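Each record in this resource describes a single protein on a pair of labelled lines. With that in mind, the following record should read easily:

===
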Amino acid sequence: MMRTLLAVLLAAATFSVGGCGGSQPDSSQRALAPGVAAPAIDGQAVLEHTKVLASDEFEGRKPGTKGEELTVSYIVEEFKKAGVEPGNPDGTFLQNVPLVGIQADPNTSLVFRKGGKQQRLRFRDDVVAWTKRVTESVSLDRSDLVFVGYGVQAPEFQWDDYKGVDLKGKTMVVLINDPPVPDTSNASGLDPKVFGGKAMTYYGRWSYKYEMGEKMGAAGVLIVHETEPAAYPFAVVQGRVAEQFDLVAPDKNMRRPAVEGWITLDRAKDLFALGGQDFEAMKKAAVSREFKPVPLGVTASMTIRNTIRTIDSRNVAGKVTGSDPALKDEYVIYTSHWDHFGIG
């Protein structure tokens, strides 16, 4: 999971040095002369560190748990063994990161309505949803559903899936990944000049879809899950029913959509049928610069109740001083994340 808010200055090369064991000189003494290559990364050492961090003892490394304490302590000790210096201005390795944890009550459902017909989606089985708003509860109350294709605004590709639509108070239904634009010179491939071809760009990421919901003032964002374009099964999405953490924001994230979530492909097809549309036909139509948002004529209703807590998590920061005195005040930053989902 990409979680930049828990960035850790933790390069694989640093770990491989730590895996050699024994005392190490400080980083200024270990600085290499220009043109001298650093030791190659020791794959076995990296594997050993991975085994430790991924072990059951570390309980999935969830923030605010015993797993965080073990993980942070392990990284600090390995930094010290490798001769890495503390990276914080106060001379320490640790930086406090205030986080807010939001746990959605699973006793809820999502209801689609059109006229006298309705479809009820079961939480976790059919829909996984949450809110980033730091509040006891949020609701969608008969919010109009609008299909926005892949939900992309990409001026560099002359692509805008939001042409002529006002989404304020409405709920977006959006596809995962980038628009798969065919390559005119290769019938079986994708155009590498548009959205990177087969390589997913940030426009295809689930996080981008929710960010666009915020930008457009939408009340809700529902991503249609498909295993191949998402690159993971719905079981991975179901893991998000656990407590979620975010940075503490002055506005308590009230600018975000009230509800963010995923629905299964089967329930999406049912939704489109309820709205008198064919899902596959709409999906095909979305792979075009000419695509325009399609109101589905269906409303969504849902209430999510939350349990909220705040914790102090930690970043781990270390530094290795370079050998060039003219460049000693310039930094190359390596980041990674130490956290994961905890016990599922």
About this structure: Confidence is low (pLDDT under 50) at residues 1-25. The chain has two domains: 4-93+317-337, 102-308. The longest helix spans residues 66-81. The radius of gyration is 24 Å.
